[in-house]
Structure formats: structure tokens, C-alpha cells
Design brief:
The complex is a heterodimer of chains A (112) and B (114).
Chain A (H helix, E strand, L loop, with lengths): L3 E4 L2 E4 L5 E7 L5 E8 L3 E8 L6 E2 L6 E5 L5 E5 L8 E8 L6 E3 L3 E5 L1
Parallel strand pairs in A: 2-11
Antiparallel strand pairs in A: 1-3, 3-8, 4-5, 4-9, 5-6, 7-8, 9-10, 9-11
Chain B lengths: L3 E3 L4 E4 L4 E7 L6 E7 L6 E6 L3 E5 L2 E6 L4 E6 L8 E8 L9 E3 L3 E6 L1
Parallel strand pairs in B: 2-11
Antiparallel strand pairs in B: 1-3, 3-8, 4-5, 4-9, 6-7, 7-8, 9-10, 9-11
The chains are: A mainly beta (112), B mainly beta (114).
Chain lengths: 112, 114
């Protein structure tokens, strides 16, 4: 089992460009999550999907959109990247509410 | 807004000692509690979960939960240099009914000296 996989590992964007971060899990988990991690701010939830077909905002959703493509895949889209979105992005999945979350390897994004 | 507080450290212990990491949380109705280890440049790795009051042991790790005091801790026995990492406390479940959202502390940096 690969667990949670993310692509790409690294990305550099110019301000205003768009991109989609991909996440997939092979653990048959129901819920999936996107976090960002910034120095001094810790891990913050951007969006989550409790189950296939549903998505909800987390703590810092502005500037992002998500799609739960199927049970395995959950993507994060930046429509018009801004320097404030420079961060490390982690995808995670869990069996469901209150269960342990397992993280992917992360995407390091720089917006210039 | 639910808060999870940890000492930022660094916490420095000699090899073979017990490392004690502490965490407090603000929302009394929180239901699940987790400890993650994060090496520099890597993703968080789950090392312990605890759901009820008391102690839970797994190898060299012991998690302790006291819901009345809103306190959760992690003990690492026989600390090894490979335990040097940032340890993140995470709490799930709150009075707003959000049982999907984990709230993380900012982490404690642990250094184990050979």
C-alpha cells in the first residue's frame, strides 16, 4: 500500500498563475483533508471532505477550491496564486470522524 | 476557536532518558487526541492516539490523557537520537460539532543528545 500520495513534490508559480495539487489514498478511507504548514503558524486546515460527494471549509479556505473526484482522490486548486500561498501543503485521509489522520509526503509550493 | 497549546522547546534530553512532552487544549468536549512526530522537511507521522482517560502504552511511547484537566502528554522512554524531531499534539471534536477537524498545536522540538 502506498498510503497517501501527492503530486507534485515541488512547484514554483508566478503570481496569478493557477495550478492543481493532486492527492490520492489507497486505504479505503472516507474522509480526506488539505492542510498548509507555515513557520510559526503550525498546520492549518484548508478544506476537508467528510465523504465522497461532500466538501467543507476549514480554517483558511480563501483562495482555494477543492474537488473530491471519487473516494480515492481529493484535489486542491489555486485559481490565482499569491505570494501568501507560499507554503508546504499536506493531504491527509482518515477512516472517518474522530479517527486518526494519515498524511501524504507534502508539496512545497513557492509563489514569486 | 479551539486552541491547543504546547511548549515550543527546544526540549533537550540525554540519550537513554525519559522525554516528557505536554499539551493542553481549550475545548472541554474534545474526544480524540493524537501525537504526531515530524522530522525536518518531512510530513507528520502518527505515533499515538488516545481516546479515554488514563495511560496508553506502545513500545517506548506512553500517552496520558486527563480530560478533567484538559491535558494530554507523551512520554518517550529510553530516548534515542533518532527521536529528535518536532512533536505535534492534535485534538479532534469540539462544541461546534466538528468531529472531522483536527486542531494542531505548534509543536515541541525535541533534541536527544548522544
Amino acid at each position: 500500500n502506498a498510503g497517501v500520495t501527492q503530486t507534485p513534490k515541488f512547484q514554483v508559480l508566478k503570481t496569478g498563475q493557477s495550478m492543481t495539487l493532486q492527492c490520492a489514498q489507497d486505504m479505503n478511507h472516507n474522509s480526506m483533508y488539505w492542510y498548509r504548514q507555515d513557520p510559526g503558524m503550525g498546520l492549518r486546515l484548508i478544506y476537508y471532505s467528510a465523504s465522497e460527494g461532500t466538501t467543507d471549509k476549514g480554517e483558511v479556505p480563501n483562495g482555494y477550491n477543492v474537488s473530491r473526484l471519487n473516494k480515492r482522490e481529493f484535489s486542491l486548486r489555486l485559481e490565482s496564486a499569491a505570494p501568501s500561498q507560499t507554503s508546504v501543503y499536506f493531504c491527509a485521509s482518515a477512516r472517518g470522524a474522530l479517527y486518526e489522520q494519515y498524511f501524504g509526503p507534502g508539496t512545497r509550493l513557492t509563489v514569486t | 476557536q479551539k486552541e491547543v497549546e504546547q511548549n515550543s522547546g527546544p526540549l533537550s534530553v540525554p540519550e537513554g532518558a525519559i522525554a516528557s512532552l505536554n499539551c493542553t487544549y481549550s475545548d472541554r468536549v474534545s474526544q480524540s487526541f493524537f501525537w504526531y512526530r515530524q522530522y525536518s522537511g518531512k510530513s507528520p507521522e502518527l505515533i499515538m492516539s488516545i481516546y479515554s482517560n488514563g495511560d496508553k502504552e506502545d513500545g517506548r511511547f506512553t500517552a496520558q490523557l486527563n480530560k478533567a484537566s484538559q491535558y494530554v502528554s507523551l512520554l518517550i522512554r529510553d530516548s534515542q537520537p533518532s527521536d529528535s524531531a518536532t512533536y505535534l499534539c492534535a485534538v479532534c471534536g469540539d462544541s461546534g460539532g466538528s468531529n472531522y477537524k483536527l486542531t494542531f498545536g505548534k509543536g515541541t522540538l525535541l533534541t536527544v543528545n548522544p
